[in-house]
Design goal:
This protein is an alpha/beta fold and 314 residues long. The protein has eight helices and 15 strands. The strands form three sheets. It has a seven-stranded mixed sheet. Strands 4-3-5-6-7-13 form a six-stranded mixed sheet, sandwiched between helices. A two-stranded antiparallel sheet has the order 1-2. The longest helix is centred in the last third of the chain and has 14 residues. It is globular and about 50 Å long.
């Protein structure tokens, strides 16, 4: 397969009916019934779904041993008949195997990796090492109440068309009021805030000229959100950043620390960057998450409340 390189970006081909795709579990073990739902969904698009050998393995909070999870990933990237790699879920563990990816195989035959949450570290590693554009989208532990028909169609369009993607701010999302500044354009990169922070010194490269995407989910606590943002800022990797796109902030509705909420922490830290911010985007761990490419050119327009992203496939 040939590839198109746009600046540093390696753009995979879009999917067509009849293409083979592979489900893998690079992080935690998924629920079999929810994965079956994901198989039904993707099969309904006319794609042929295969499961990695270790999709349902279990070892503590991991989907099996590191070498087995990595083998499933690399087998999918090396197989010329597999045209996309879907993560069954996030959780924990992808960070343990990111440095073992077969980057040469990805460079020879780029194909989209779809996932979010802990899968963020794989997107960051693939971008840093080969410039592969990733797809920040729902996992294949498909749960209809969280991801309805509109969510499914957005994912399908991101993979099977070359249409521009527009995500609109939802005023009901926690954090929408953080929005400030003028329009800004740059390559979109990021994902789960805690995972992005954990990638400092290994898989996260400079975001000079980029738009940082972050989504924040509970389990870290208010102080940890402060630590995550502060460490990112002190790393120097945000120097030259052009803007921030803030996705869903979930699970913090009742958290207070001496009168501060998660929004106070985000506002305090992000203001130090002195860049435009578009917040309240339905991207992340909340209901009906949108799908966006990572690595292509994006524009945040705080006044219009839109994130516009170039397609992640060619």
């Amino acid at each position: 397969m040939t590839s198109t390189v746009l600046g540093p970006a390696l753009l995979p081909s879009h999917l067509n009916r009849g293409d083979r795709v592979r489900f893998v579990s690079p992080a935690s073990t998924p629920d079999r019934e929810l994965v079956a739902n994901g198989v039904d969904l993707v099969t309904g698009w006319g794609l042929q779904v295969e499961l990695g050998d270790h999709v349902f393995d279990s070892l503590g909070y991991l989907a099996g041993a590191d070498e087995d999870r990595l083998a499933d990933l690399n087998d999918a990237f090396r197989d010329p008949g597999v045209r996309a790699v879907f993560a069954t879920r996030g959780g924990k563990g992808a960070y343990r195997i990111a440095d073992g990816l077969d980057f040469d195989a990805v460079r020879r035959d780029p194909k989209p990796l779809i996932g979010f949450s802990d899968i963020t570290v794989l997107h960051l590693a693939l971008w840093k090492q080969v410039g592969l554009v990733g797809i920040h989208g729902p996992s294949m532990s498909w749960y209809e109440p969280n991801c309805g028909p509109e969510c499914a169609e957005a994912l399908r369009r991101a993979l099977m068309t070359t249409d521009e993607i527009v995500v609109r701010q939802d005023p009901k999302e926690l954090g929408a009021g953080l929005t400030v500044g003028e329009a800004a354009t740059g390559f979109l990169m990021g994902g789960n805030l805690d995972t992005v922070r954990c990638a400092i010194g290994a898989d996260l490269c400079s975001l000079d000229g980029g738009i940082l995407l972050i989504e924040v989910n509970h389990g870290t606590g208010l102080g940890m959100v402060d630590r995550q943002l502060t460490q990112l800022m002190r790393s120097g990797l945000l120097n030259g950043l052009r803007g921030v796109a803030v996705g869903q902030i979930t699970g913090f509705e009742d958290d207070l620390s001496n009168g501060w909420t998660v929004l106070d922490i985000l506002r305090d830290r992000l203001a130090k960057l002195d860049v435009p911010i578009l917040a309240g985007l339905p991207i992340g761990h909340g209901l009906q998450p949108a799908t966006v490419p990572l690595g292509t050119l994006a524009t945040i327009d705080p006044a219009a409340g839109t994130l516009t992203v170039a397609p992640g496939v060619r």
